[in-house]
Amino acid sequence: KKSAFSSSKHLIPLNSSNPSCVYRNLNHGTVSLVISEGKPKFETHEVEPPRKEKWQTKKRLKMKRKREKQKRKAANKKYPRRLGIKGKKKRKFGNAEERVKYKLEKSKIKESLIDRLNQYEVSKIQGPGVEPHDLTGEERFFMKKMAQKGLIMFQLQRGIFGGVILNMHMHWKKHETVKVICNICKPGQVHECAEEIARLSGGIPIQAIGDETVIFYRGKDYVMPEVMPPIDTRTHNLYIEKN
């Protein structure tokens, strides 16, 4: 018994015109041509597939993707902006008097908690620090002219939220000044709005035009911070819900 053909993974047909020949493809195994008693014969040797490939079924693949998705969701839940209060089930009352009494008790508890919280002074989170430096008269005049000619501006229609500070830093990436229009400010409150924006963004207010527009300068040694919108600012969606 002699082997006349080297082992191979797949069998290649010798004569494709003969329909009586049957060929079999083996994913895990070998096919060899041997001569036994003067007659050629084919012998197949099947091998068990590796353990990983054997159990890699469609169901296991779905379970693997499901676990990866759950890990991503768990990581996103720890992000500070996604943290919130879970809603409680609504309590049912027999009549209107019970409902009013329950609400009065809850309001008294909330008022006592507010009084306790007012005893503590919590400092506000500061934005990126900027080294104080004085601008000369020529530099200030040049910055004002450059900002007034610029077409890009930001409008505060609902309030100062994280997206406004983020857009300011993205604009400061290529420009030195930015124009902010405070539509929510009442007459005489534009300076208070400018101080709040300067605290969160780290910019320097150069000029206040009228009762709405403020021009901010990023600073000479400006470096874009890693976390651009401060954590204590609300998101745009929360401002829409409040309004």
UniProtKB/TrEMBL annotation:
GO molecular function: RNA binding
InterPro entries xref list: At3g25440-like, RNA-binding_CRM, YhbY-like_sf
Keywords: RNA-binding
Biased composition (Basic residues): 57-90
Recorded superkingdom: Eukaryota
The keyword RNA-binding appears for this protein: yes
Biased amino acid composition, Basic and acidic residues: 41-56
Domain CRM: 133-229
Membrane-traversing stretches: none
Annotated region described as Disordered, given as residue ranges: 41-90
Protein name, as recorded: CRS1_YhbY domain-containing protein
Organism (species): Cephalotus follicularis
